[in-house]
UniProtKB/TrEMBL annotation:
Protein name according to UniProt: YkgJ family cysteine cluster protein
Domain of life: Bacteria
């Protein structure tokens, strides 16, 4: 499956100061970690979660609705985190420290608007967690492995 890239509009984001990034980190999709190649996904998820700068969040644990997102500043190192707001760990004074192509899909697909709220293109927690559903076994396996190694 081809990774969605989106279009970066740094002038609008710079003028805004990253308000969305200060509220909540963007949501990653399985393709951000190499899906549908499960071995590549496992390798990339392992590296991301070990770094402490990415975390596993959820909508409903009983329904196995999990997803991956950057950690919130101050909560780096938490393999599982269900915080509802906070600043993205990758936000700096000059913008996102990740190259555009390495940002979570919801960040890349966001349509920034200077005079109004940016358009998230439907990338809600529920939408993204449903995309992860086919890979939840890999995600939880890797997360537990990282958590047990800490």
């Amino acid at each position: 499956m081809k990774k969605n890239i989106g279009i970066e509009i740094p002038g609008i984001c710079k003028a805004c100061g990253g308000k969305c990034c200060k509220t909540f980190p963007g949501l990653a999709t399985p393709e951000d970690f190499g899906a549908p190649d499960r071995d590549l996904m496992r390798e990339k998820l392992l590296k991301a979660l070990i770094s402490g700068r990415w975390t596993v969040d959820w909508v409903d644990q009983d329904a196995e609705l999990y997803f991956v997102r950057p950690a919130i500043k101050g909560f780096e190192g938490s393999v599982f985190d269900h915080a509802y707001n906070g600043e993205c760990t990758f936000l700096t004074n000059t913008g996102c420290e990740l190259d555009f192509s390495e940002r979570p899909e919801s960040c890349r697909m966001l349509i920034p608007k200077l005079e109004e709220r940016c358009d998230p293109q439907g990338y809600t927690r529920m939408y993204v967690s449903k995309i992860w559903k086919d890979y939840v076994d890999v995600l939880i396996d890797v997360a537990i492995e990282v958590e047990n190694s800490q």
